[in-house]
Specification:
203 residues, alpha/beta, Rossmann fold, 7 helices, binds S-adenosylmethionine
């Protein structure tokens, strides 16, 4: 898995682009900056954008090539981020540290999501915001017609709306939709796609 992502990020350009994910940008711009955690943050496009808005940014990912490019993007934008190399399973942050958590195309096996997302929630302060965009199980229909649409080919890695409700059962749902969007993110998220978008607020 690590080799796959290091290989994907080994090219010069940013495979999902240098601009933030559109849903993430739209949501994060509404919140007063504090400290944010971005798991599975790849080449850092969302982390760097948050830092430019004044957020204190922590991110992690399994890919060293991803971190290298994230650090480069941060430097190019005149900001700094704390980007650790870690799996979701090993990530260790203090409880009640963050005002926001952003999971953008953060795809893990269902059993891993069920076991480790509750730990991510423990790192949040009361009132914290969760922003999530991910591919839904229907993305398999889109990516089979257009491989450039992207997303995991294994259904277990894809999300359902019901599951999001379960994962975030103790969180106030501000926004939850399964919808079709036209992605234009670098070379690997291009075209009509089925996504789930979620915003939640901790009590
Ligand atoms: C589709 S990319 C999304 C990157 C970034 N969030 C973005 O939107 O540009 C998925 C990322 O998940 C990371 N990843 C996969 N399994 C992981 C795990 N168990 N723990 C941490 N990161 C993981 C990969 O290295 C990859 O960077």
């Amino acid at each position: 898995m690590r080799e796959f992502w290091d290989e994907r990020y080994s090219r010069e350009d940013y495979v999902y682009g240098e601009n933030p994910n559109a849903f993430f940008a739209q949501q994060i711009e509404k919140i007063v900056p504090g400290r944010i955690l971005l798991p599975a943050e790849g080449e850092g496009r969302n982390a760097v954008y948050a830092a430019t808005l004044g957020w204190q940014v922590d991110a992690f990912d399994i890919s060293k090539a991803g971190r290298h490019k994230a650090d480069k993007l941060a430097a190019a934008n005149g900001v700094s981020i704390d980007y650790r190399i870690s799996t979701l399973q090993q990530a260790a942050y203090d409880k009640h540290s963050f005002n926001a958590l952003a999971l953008i195309f953060a795809h893990f096996p269902l059993q891993v999501r069920m076991e480790y997302f509750p730990r991510l929630l423990q790192t949040l302060q009361p009132g914290a915001t969760i922003i999530l965009e991910c591919f839904s199980k229907d993305q398999l229909l889109f990516s089979s017609k257009n491989p450039r649409a992207g997303g995991p080919k294994d259904k277990d890695l894809l999300y359902s709306k019901e599951e999001i409700k379960q994962l975030f059962a103790d969180v106030e749902v501000m926004h939850l939709v399964e919808t079709e969007v036209d992605l234009a993110e670098g070379d690997f998220h291009v075209g009509r796609s089925s996504v789930i978008q979620f915003v939640g607020k901790l009590p």
